[in-house]
Amino acid sequence: MKACYMTDSGKVRSHNEDSVTILKNENNEFLLVVADGMGGHRKGEVASSIVVSHLGKRFNDTPSIGTKLDAVNWLNDNVNEINSEILQYGEENVDSKGLGTTIVVALLTKTYLIFGNIGDSSGYVIKNNKLHKVTHDHTLVNLLVDAGNLTIDEARIHPKKNVLMRALGAAEKVELDIFDVDMEIDAILLCSDGLTNMLTDEQIEKVLIDDELESEEKVEKLIRKCNARGGNDNISVAYLTRNGE
Q1: Nearest CA to 188 among 13, 29, 77, 10?
Q2: Which of 37, 79, 93, 187 could form a disulfide with 47 if both were Cys (CB 3.0 to 4.6 A apart)?
Q3: Beta strand pairing status for 2-8 and 130-133?
Q4: What is the pLDDT of residues 127-175, one digit of tens each?
Q5: pTM for the whole thing?
Q6: CA distances (Å), origin 51, targets 75, 83, 181
Q7: What CA–CA distance (Å, rounded) separates 100 from 90?
Q8: CA 145 to CA 102: how far, in whole Å?
């Protein structure tokens, strides 16, 4: 396995509200996390860092996640705890109104691969040199697309495309969407919408299937391409490939 993760402020934002990590535990299980924070007075990075630090500590303290059901329960329990932490922080800090974050996470073990997400940070896999999106964005425009009121092309340029319908810190109760993913994949990609709002899936795929580039070079190239197109948002990428396994 080869793992690489990077985050960049982009060309417009004065600070970075994203958090990202990839971790491996004692049982050679992998945790990938990307969180895209939101909130005034630079509190978005507080929310996203709570996600990464909480999951990272719990994962590092866990020799093995266990069965697939154990993993689903582990993710749900921790996401609920994180949501409570973010809500408590907002209550205790008067300048933190609107504090919140997205989350996309992947857990890879010897016997299963599961994804989870809340919000519009995305999870993908590469299989047979094709990029496949696993997660489903919790956005207003996605609801309109699902209802047949917008096309996918219309959704990409809709003025309210970034309006979230679900986020950590937005409500007392949260629901993490869980996806059971085929193990026969070549790579995992998690990213914030700073990547997907600037590059199409086809453009992302073209970079990731380039055999002449190492993992780090692929991630760096994706971020460079976003910034070359304006870099309107923070950009975070977590990439895990089986090459060199």
Answers
A1: 29
A2: 37
A3: unpaired
A4: 999 999 999 998 888 888 778 887 777 777 777 777 888 999 999 999 9
A5: 0.93
A6: 11, 9, 22
A7: 9
A8: 20
Rounded distance, CA 22 to CA 8, Å?
A: 16
Q: What angle do CA 129, 133, 193 make, to 5 degrees?
A: 115
Unique residue bearing structure tokens 């866990």: 62
Q: Where are the alpha helices (DSSP H) in the chain?
A: 44-60, 68-92, 140-146, 152-156, 193-196, 201-208, 215-228
Tokens of 149: 């009121």
Buried b (16+ CB within 10 A) or exposed e, 137-169: bbbbbbebbeeeebeeeebeebeebeebebbbb
Which residue in this structure is represented by tokens 């990590």?
21
DSSP string, 97-149: TT-EE-EEEEEE-SS-EEEEEESS-EEEEEETTEEEE-S---BHHHHHHHTTS
